[in-house]
Design a protein that fits this description.
This protein is 33% helix and 27% strand. It is an alpha+beta fold. Helix 1 runs antiparallel to helix 2 and helix 1 packs parallel to helix 4. The site of methionine sulfoxide has 15 residues, from helix 3 and strand 6.
Length: 150
């Protein structure tokens, strides 16, 4: 597990004073991705039209460019506004396999002020059951501190 307190501090100091969503996403996904070997793909999908997610800054191999809210783990997070912790992607109906190596996923909704949905953070692992509730809680807090006031 990453040293979440130091990851949070690093992200806070790197992003201080920045309000551009893409600049923030690029910095946050870079820092998260390199904080733990379990994270094989780390990136954002942004809400760019009603019910549509489009690829944002990411680290790892190429991702799908467009994901409707109706599809996949990212779509479920965007639709419900709830964190999706998926220990086995093969057991998730409608999972979108951008990389066949992905075994488990953690997808968090990203909110601005007034719970405006900005997008989702998608972390994929080639390891089965890679993610814990601790990861979810720590990452949720980091996202709230970076994007919650936008
Ligand atoms: N994990 C996603 C697809 C995105 S790519 O794997 C980067 C999903 O099923 O929503």
């Amino acid at each position: 597990m990453p040293d979440y307190p130091s990851l949070a501090r690093r992200i806070a100091s790197l992003t201080e004073g920045e309000t551009d969503e893409v600049a923030l996403m690029a910095t946050v996904c870079c820092e998260i991705h390199h904080s733990d070997d379990r994270f094989d793909w780390t990136g954002f999908y942004r809400v760019t039209a009603p019910q549509v997610l489009k690829i944002g800054p990411y680290q790892g191999g190429h991702g799908c460019l467009v994901i409707p809210f109706s599809r996949g783990v990212c779509g479920a997070a965007a639709r419900s506004g709830l964190i999706q912790l998926v220990p086995d992607v093969d057991a998730f109906p409608g999972h979108i396999a951008c990389a066949s190596s992905t075994r488990s996923e953690l997808v968090l909704p990203v909110f601005g002020t007034g719970r405006r949905l900005i997008g989702v953070l998608d972390i994929d692992s080639d390891r089965p059951d890679a993610f814990t509730q601790d990861d979810a809680h720590n990452l949720e807090a980091i996202l709230a501190s970076v994007f919650g006031h936008l």
